[in-house]
Amino acid sequence: MSDGHHNGHEHVPSRQRRRFPGISSRAYEHPADRSALVALRKLSGFDTVFKALSGLLPERSLRLLFLSDSVRVSDRQFAHLNVMLRDACYILDLEKVPPMYVNQDPVPNAMCIGLDEPIIVVTTGLVELLDEEEMRAVVGHEVGHALSGHAVYRTILLFLTSLAVRVAWIPLGNVAIMAIVTALREWFRKSELSADRAGLLVGQDLQASMRGLMKIAGGNHLHEMNVDAFLEQAEEYEAGGDLRDSVLKILNVLPRSHPFTTVRAAELKKWAASRDYQRIMDGHYPRRDEDRNTSVRDSFRESASHYATHVRSSKDPLMKLVNDIAGGAGDLGDRMRRGFGGFTGSQPRPPEDDGGPAQGPGGSGRPDGPDRPEGPEGSGGSEEPGGDGPESPRDGSPRDGA
User: Which GO terms describe its biological process (predicted)?
Assistant: First the structure.
């Protein structure tokens, strides 16, 4: 990339990186991100809440807060972050560079918020944890949120999470708010997968993205960590256990605004090896000026195809059971009793001899089934290098895992 000016962008780094003029966020958005957002918008009462909050949220106050109590990134303050920010906006062709602030907080975190105009906030914990290339992926992650328009819903999530605590004493008041908060969190976890992809498009260094995610999970101890072993954890997490573990996975992720870090790493690595990523790198991608002609029906079809592929290829016991039900497999009642036997303390009933192994490896009682190849897309699980996530440990709001 040559140095120069473009829409106010200057001082771009000398290392050559491919640029994507006019790229649409559709190019990198995870199908689960789009489908979850559609489901969110269909949630009863969401439109009313959204319209009301759009006019009531103290966005101006929020901007003044960061202006008065954080350090604004510029040529004179955190200049290296300013270079990364301008470079990210140049690569993704975001015409207006959003303001960026560094906030004193030892917890590694980052977020992109705002209704009319997005602002990016990173914590000192994140700046001190990551090296230059890892941080570049995080900044690209946040710029991807801005390009996708995620900041609006993130801001509402922050506000509603705080509001839910204040109205907890009102009968049914908290229930109504938490229904929307839960739906917002489900969407936001999926949006993190999209933003991780944007971070890779900006940094164009998969190993740096992987290192950043590992550091967010295990701290600044790279000499003690290994990328392959880290990704094996994601494999074990998805495939391990029985139906009880599948339910516990769902319960564990519900209160989170971001997917689990190993899941994010595995998802990003899978996308980096896909034909879709290579096509973008070769210059073949959807343009923003084509967005108005995008078919909603096609988006639904793509999302449905993604979920179907995920269920077919998933190694999770619950997903295997769902796939078997769809395929008309017999004796599902017995398999469910074996899968959930631990909840009642009963021993799994030995299956009748059908000429094949009755249990998964090690006789764990896991529902058996043929091994299936991994699909092109993983499950969405969605916090971020540079996670933008909502929750801040200080105010109980959703936290962004970098």
Answer: proteolysis involved in protein catabolic process
Residue 237 lies in a domain: no
Residues 390, 271 within the same domain: yes
30 vs 308 pLDDT, higher one? 30
Residue 338 belongs to what domain range?
317-363
Do the Cβ atoms of 321 and 335 come closer than 8 Å? yes
- What is the DSSP secondary structure assignment for residue 75, as one 8-state letter? S
Smallest CA-to-CA distance from 35 within 161, 191, 164 is with 191
Choose the most confident range, by mean pLDDT, from 12-21, 119-128, 168-177, 371-380.
119-128
The more confident residue out of 195 and 320 is: 195
Cβ of 88: how many Cβ atoms within 10 Å? 31
pLDDT of residue 252: 66
- Residue 13 maps to a domain: no
Residues 6+ apart with CB under 8 A from 392: 105, 107, 109, 398, 399
Model pLDDT for residues 258-279, shown as the tens digit of each residue: 788 999 999 999 999 999 999 9
Task: Give me the helices (H) in 100-226, please.
Answer: 124-129, 132-148, 150-166, 173-203, 206-218
3-class DSSP state for residue 227? Answer: helix
Indicate the pairing of strand 397-398 with strand 391-392: antiparallel
At residue 23, φ and ψ (nearest 5 deg) are -65, 135
Overall number of domains in the chain: 2
Query: What is the rounded average pLDDT for all residues in the chain?
Result: 73
For residue 306 the two structure tokens come to 């993604």
Q: Are 10 and 133 in contact (CB under 8 A)?
A: no
0.90 surpassed by pTM: no
| One domain, residues 47 and 143 | yes
Q: Is-catalytic flag, 142?
A: yes
Task: Please choose, from the candidates 144, 93, 98, 91, the residue with its C-alpha nearest in 3D space to the C-alpha of residue 118.
Answer: 98
Total Cβ atoms within 10 A of residue 111: 33
Same domain for 359 and 276, yes or no, is: no
Domain shared by 274 and 151, yes or no: yes
Residues 197 and 85 in one domain: yes
The predicted-structure confidence for 321-335, as pLDDT tens digits, reads as follows 445 545 554 454 554
44 in a domain, yes or no? yes
Domain identity same for 203 and 274:
yes
From 142, 267, 377, 383, the catalytic residue? 142
57 with 163, same domain? Answer: yes
DSSP character at residue 292: G
Task: Give the pLDDT confidence of 219-254 residue by residue, as tens digits.
Answer: 999 999 999 999 999 888 877 655 565 667 666 666
